[in-house]
Amino acid sequence: MKIKKILVSQPQPTSEKSPYFDIAKRHDVEIIFRPMIKVEGLSAKEFRQFKINLADYTAVIFTSRTAVDHYFRLCEECRFNVPDTMRYFCTSEQIALYLQKYIVYRKRKISFGITGKLDDSQFVQAILKNSKEKFLFPISDVQTDTLPVIADNKINYTPAVMYRTVSNDFTPDEPFDYDLLIFFSPAGIESLMKNFPDFGKDGKQPVCIGAFGPSTSKAVKDAGLRLDIEAPTKETPSMTAALDEFLTKNEG
Asked: What's the structural domain count of the chain?
């Protein structure tokens, strides 16, 4: 099958040096960046149903900039003035610096990890040193990560769903004329099947599919679809490397 048009279910890269652009030129293909999912925030009314009082917490844990945005948005919508004494614990320095969008950074008590992971030693130690705080943990409706530091230590924390992942639906007049679809999360596969319920039925899969990560690959197979590109592997550690290899073989 000749690949001419590819859907990459991610936002378009901000850098012109992205490998995707090189691949498009090298293989003479068109690459369209179109997320299959999007994030929307819970309304203040929806959030109040969880009966979480924002004023009860003395510290907040952030694992993404999205979480930062929706925490401060809900604080405003719930008319809660975040006190200067609030402590912030971020899984990376990038997230910590992003707080400058909402607070005077140098005047606040902010800690962050190095690796961006929840089990990062610096991040964990920061929480342990402040274990008497009452932590709020803003998350999405599909987030399953838990804090490893909680298991063996009496940390007072509350997960708080503040935003949700939903399907980024195709409009009736939006063309779906791709030869290859590339996904990066199981939610992307769910969105595909929601938009096109008959996709791949009766063994008729009209396009090729690529998946990044074991959970995404599993979601493709669980949906009864054929997986044509899988990454990362030892030979192709990135999706762009896997895509380049696939297109090269396909041309042959």
From this structure: 2
One-letter amino acid of 239: M
DSSP for 54-120 reads: GGG-SEEEESSHHHHHHHHHHHHHTT----TT-EEEESSHHHHHHGGGTS-GGGSEEEE-SSSSTT-
Q: What is the CATH number of the domain that holds 16?
A: 3.40.50.10090
d(CA 209, CA 182): 6
Boundaries of domain holding 31 = 5-36+169-226+242-251
How many residues can be counted in the chain? 252
Give the containing element (helix H, strand E) for 131. Answer: none
Listed residue (134, 155, 128, 144) closest to 63, CA to CA: 144
Say whether both 72 and 143 belong to one domain.
yes
Q: Model's pTM, two decimal places? A: 0.75
Tokens 């008319």, residue? Answer: 79
Do residues 188 and 100 share a domain? no
- Residue 217 has a pLDDT of 95
Q: Is the same domain home to 31 and 47?
A: no
Positions in the chain whose pLDDT score sits under 50:
none
Cis amide linkage into residue 206, ω under 30° from 0: no
Shared domain for 25 and 141, answered yes or no, is: no
**Six-digit token pair at 35?**
């997320």
